[in-house]
Amino acid sequence: MKVMLRNTPAGLSAYVPKKDLEEPVVSQEQAGLWGGTITLANGWVLALPEMAADTRLPITVEARKVGGE
């Protein structure tokens, strides 16, 4: 699914346009954002693609839902 990641004053946020859902990122599997999973405030766990560590935000990526409701 397409997910837009961006920095907000409250921290990292993910927006899923198809679901019209915007949730804060509450945890990351790795210190770096790319190539691991992130957990959103609603419980979804998304696997992010491998990308360069210096990739700038905001960016839309193809993520895979691997957990949550």
UniProtKB/TrEMBL annotation:
Q: Which NCBIfam families match?
A: nifT_nitrog
| Encoding gene per record | nifT
Q: Which organism is it from?
A: Zoogloea dura
Task: Tell me the protein's name.
Answer: Putative nitrogen fixation protein NifT
GO annotation terms (biological process): nitrogen fixation
